Amino acid sequence: MTAIRQHEALAQAYDGITTVVSGLDDADLQRPTRCRGWLVADLLFHVLCDAQRALVALASPVDGPADVDDVSYWRAFSPGADGGARHAWWARRSAAAFDRPSGVVRIWSDTAPAAARAAAAADPDGFVTTQGHVLRVPDLLATLTTEAVIHYLDLVVELPDAPPPAALPTRVAVATMDGLLSDDAVRPAGWDDREYLLKAAGRVPLTDRDRLELGETAGWFPLIG
Predict the structure, then answer these.
(1) Is this prediction's pTM over 0.90?
(2) pLDDT digits over 24-35, tens only?
(3) 10: CB partners within 8 A, 6+ apart
(4) What's the domain range around 152?
(5) What is the CATH number of the domain that holds 85?
C-alpha cells in the first residue's frame, strides 16, 4: 500500500461514515452501536476526535525515526486496557452536550474532509507524533483508516440499509489485523472480511468451530479492543 493509496483509503473511510450519518435523523442518531454504552452520535463523536487528532498530528511534523508502525501502534491498546471505560463515559457526556444529536454530524461533516485534505497534502516521507508515539505519515493514516473501518461496522449494526465499508479502506484494516496475528496464523476460510474484522476487534465472539480452525491462534483474539 503506497502513501498515496493510504490517504485515498482514509478519505474513502471517512466519506463512508459521512454518507451514512448525513442521512440520519435525531432518532436514528440515538440508535445503539456495537460499542457498549454508545449511541450512534456518541460513537460519531469519538471518531470526530480521531479526525481532529489527525489534523493536529499532520500539522505538527517531527523528526524521525518512528518508534511504531501501522501494526505495532495497536499493541499499546490491548483489549480491556485501563482508561477505556473512562473515555467511553467522557465521549458519551460530550456528545450529549449538543442541543441535538445532529450537531455532532455537522461538525463531523466539516472536520472529516479537512482531515482527508490534510492527509493528501502531507509529506509521505515525513514523521508525525500522536498519542505519545512517532509514526511515518503513511502509517498514521493507516491507523486512522483501520479505526474508521472498525467503527463504521460498529455504527451500522442497527442500520441495515447501510452499505459495507469501501474496499480500499477495508483492505487496510484487514492488513492491520493480519499483521497483528502470528506469522504462521491463517484466518478461517469461511470468514469474509467483515466477519474477520468484527471478530479480530472483539465485536463478535469466536465460535467453537472458529477456535478449532484457529488452534492456538484463537488465544490471540481479540487482536484489538
Answers:
(1) yes
(2) 999 999 999 999
(3) 54, 115, 116, 119, 141, 144, 145, 148, 169
(4) 3-169
(5) 1.20.120.450
